[in-house]
Amino acid sequence: MTMKIAVLPGDGIGTEIVEQAVRVLNVLDLKFEMESALVGGAAYEAHGHPLPDGTLNLAKAADAILFGAVGDWKYDKLDRPLRPEQAILGLRKHLGLFANFRPAICYEQLVGASSLKPELIAGLDILIIRELTGDIYFGQPRGRRVATDGHFPGAEEAFDTMRYSKPEIERIAHVAFQAARKRSKKVTSVDKANVLETFQFWKDVVTEVHAQYPDVELQHMYVDNAAMQLVKAPKAFDVVVTGNMFGDILSDEASMLTGSIGMLPSASLNAKNQGLYEPSHGSAPDIAGKGIANPLATILSAAMMLRFSLQQPEAADRIESAVQAVLATGYRTPDIWSAGTLKVGTREMGDAVVAAITGKTITKAITKS
Ligand code: IPM
Ligand code: MG
Known about the structure:
Elements (H helix, E strand, L loop, with lengths): L2 E8 L3 H13 L5 E5 L4 H7 L5 H9 L2 E6 L15 H11 L3 E7 L12 H4 L3 E7 L11 E4 L9 E4 L6 H16 L4 E6 L5 H14 L6 E6 H10 L6 E4 L1 H14 L7 E5 L5 E5 L16 H13 L4 H16 L2 E2 L9 E2 L2 H13 L3 H7 L1
Helix pairs in contact: 1-10, 1-12, 6-7, 8-9, 10-11, 11-12, 12-13
Bound molecules: 3-isopropylmalic acid and magnesium ion.
3-isopropylmalic acid (IPM) binds next to α4.
């Protein structure tokens, strides 16, 4: 069976980094059917909508989606439904991509890139599992109105709704406990049960599901404390499971612990294992088109795609080993460069990974470009 991949590069550096990931996929001797479509600001420019029907249908029909990044400051003034971010929110919603995996791994060669002391983060390997289709992100009702109560009745106000249903919490809790079984069997569930009804419920339901996983240790932590512990003693965490909004914030914090957000892949899966794979970083419009963006997070996202949605674990291993080999050789894009290493651009980094996979010497790939 041919594996169908929808390729959605998006905006900013999205096109450059996805191009390198596609090159890497193409040297694996596997049969893929890849089709590209516009998404985000690029789709808005061409079709007047950040997630046109054609793009959504392509994504729905695919086994997996390789996604770049969306967004640019120039769209900040558009009505909310037309902003590039709506494309990613729409894909999550329409495909039911409720389980978001955001690993924060500190690569041995990049320990110096973190703003934390090396001893705090050397060997760091955390997996943040963020619920991705519920919470205050999608809760209804939301909007603007004139207040009828509160501190300023009669004043204009805005509101959102934080909510989680029991099945939504149960399914993400199962994902977290099962992931923990393949790692060090420890889950930290992050909530705000001391203040929010939604997160007291979250805590209760996670505790209930935990009864089915007696071999996994469960710890509960308030989100403010979790934010603090993440910079104080990040290695005390293994699998972290939390809701959509807390997960948005904590995953950015966790990624920065590694000092190299340009290295971190992510996966968003639905119940059918269909997945969207994207780098954890954004579209970086300030460096778009300069050929200096780090393609490794996207290349590593392609590896996650092979492992989770396409059942090709050996191919995933080949990509991950190639990335390690390239780092060991000293190749660095500017975001992870340090004295004594070799600064290369987006394409050369792609060349180097391709060369490492195909067994050619990396130096040859560099001179070729
Ligand atoms: C993320 C991003 C998105 C989110 C935005 C772009 C809608 O910050 O994937 O973390 O808030 O989920
Ligand atoms: Mg975010």
